[in-house]
Amino acid sequence: MKEDKKGKILIVDDTPVNIEVLGEALSPQYDIRVATCGRDALYLVATELPDLVLLDIMMPEMDGYEVCRRIKNDSGTSGIPVIFITAKAHKEDEQKGLSVGAIDYITKPFNLDIVKARIKNHLELKWTKDALIEASKAKSDFLATMSHEIRTPMNAIIGMTELALNTKLDMEQRKFLTIIRDSSNALLALINDILDISKIEAGKIELEDETFNIRETVEAVISTLTVNAHKKKLEILSHILPKTPVWVVGDRMRLRQILVNLAGNAIKFTKSGYVLIKAYTQEPDGDFLWYHFLIKDTGVGIPEDQIKRLFKAYSQLDNKMTQKYEGTGLGLTISRHLTTLMGGKIWVESEPGCGSEFHFTVPLKKGISLIDQKESVDQQANRVLIFDTLEPSGAMLSDLLAEANCSVKLVTNISDARKALHEAAEQSNIYDFFLIDHESTGITAKSIQFVFKDLVESSAAVVAFLHSSTLLLDKDEESGHISPRFIPKPLTLKEIKCFIETAGNKEECIKKSNVDCEVEGQVDCEVEGQLDDGKVKSRHDMPSLNVLLVDDTDFNLFLANKLLEMRGHNVFEARDGSEALEALSTRDFDVVLMDISMPVMDGITATRLLRACENGDLYDIDEKSVSLSLLQSIEKFRKGKKPIPVIAMTAHAEPEQERACLNAGMNFVVTKPFKPQTFFDVLYTVLSNSSGTALNSSSS
Questions:
Q1: Parallel, antiparallel, or unpaired for β 406-411 and 382-387?
Q2: Which domains occur in the chain, in start order?
């Protein structure tokens, strides 16, 4: 703070002599403004924005308490410090003054030196706070700008790499491009972490409330991390304990972010074994349920002296460890802040060489299911025998099958498995399904006949192997008269129900679930908006569209053009919002893909003007960057037509930017860089919602 800074002080008192005394004492150091009633005081506070208010309590019409209350209730003036100077010397009066927002309370008669000292201290505190807020804002703005500038070329790098991976390549070329894609995604994750830390420090993280399913959220996190886990030959498991309410209201994306951070870290620091996400509820608290999440791994563990540093910002564990396993440590800091923001807490229990357990608890409102709950067609429970030597995996699968109305027996060694099969055959009470975990037991389709002799054929109707989709399984080897099924891990409740209800028939399961997924082998469908192998493959067929593509960056135009042309769509380009409006005045388009940051006219302004033309609201427009005659041409051309869907395509990742886009009349916001599958899914959804019908082409 500069020593020569001269603050502005508003003195509010209905007694002239008090104003005179305070004015004479303070005017050499400060600019003084005066009000003799509450109404005048509020006017001067709003128009002059003083640095501090000295406020009497006993005044006609409106007392000082009410004046202070109104100052503090106005977001534009709430930061102005208020000091009461009054003859009301009772403790109750002082408590009331502080309760309405005053920072100090001085009683008359007062000592001028004390008054001046307190004013000086409070002003210095205010100016220091203002400087910190300004510095934080400058940092946030800088990081947001840098994020935008980095995301823009990254959109081209990731997008073009995805397209290249969809062409004919030899193994070496595919490996090079895969490294580029994975490295770009790692860089993007780092940018997101840095941006989140900045928002947290500035207090700009806002929680959303939406109804979502806990089980599906955890399963989606597992799906996202499966490839990384299976590359290291790790089991990755999710276990929602029985009777856990799964429909809740809260911030799904932030909860998902915490889970991805913690489980992703667990994979990074685990060489062999497994990573488990477990969820269950604790005691209810009114309308809220306390959810306890546990992320357990069999990794290297954490020394006790380093646990305290674990969640601190810009702090890592032992340098040798972090250099070996890589990472910034930002994910744990973000997780701690998000957990606290959600009203919960986070902690870790660990021992070197024995793995780690990360715990966090959050309160979530009870939700109502968004889907119809249908009773199972089969009233009689299927009998299932599970052979799994990994305890967490067996427990998880047992509970999943119980949810699918199955009667389950779990065995963990070959001897018990043989015994269970023998008893089933002897009692003529065969198992409907015999599920064998390939990784934990080591049994394959080729060796099953050798391990169990003829027991399987006489004691189980359907035999199925659970396996990691990235590991080769000898599916085609001879296994006697047994024709085993193969189920890729990790399993979801929906998949296990489908498998049981269709007796493991792949074609029937696909038809029943109505999703474009492979039941055997690698899943080839999007999870949480991500495409596993960068394949430009859509679940939705669309007729040929006329698309207006608005962007000022050459490589973004090229990438979007390629994506659209590969699907047979017609593309018309515009370089800024003004050019887009020119095009919209003479041509019909099915959809507009609009960048936000552009010269001449940005995307938000262009969309706002388009909506004004469509709604016939031009009388309210005061925009100098475009002629009124052009807007009138658009209004005339669009009259009687449905509003054109506008999809924002922006490198700005802030929630405020998304709100600004939607408030301007855009239908959806896609953040760059994006995956081709995400792009086309959004396009299909927006156009379907706009037309009111599905957009499947006639050939589909």
A1: parallel
A2: 8-110 (3.40.50.2300), 139-200 (1.10.287.130), 210-366 (3.30.565.10), 382-513 (3.40.50.2300), 546-691 (3.40.50.2300)
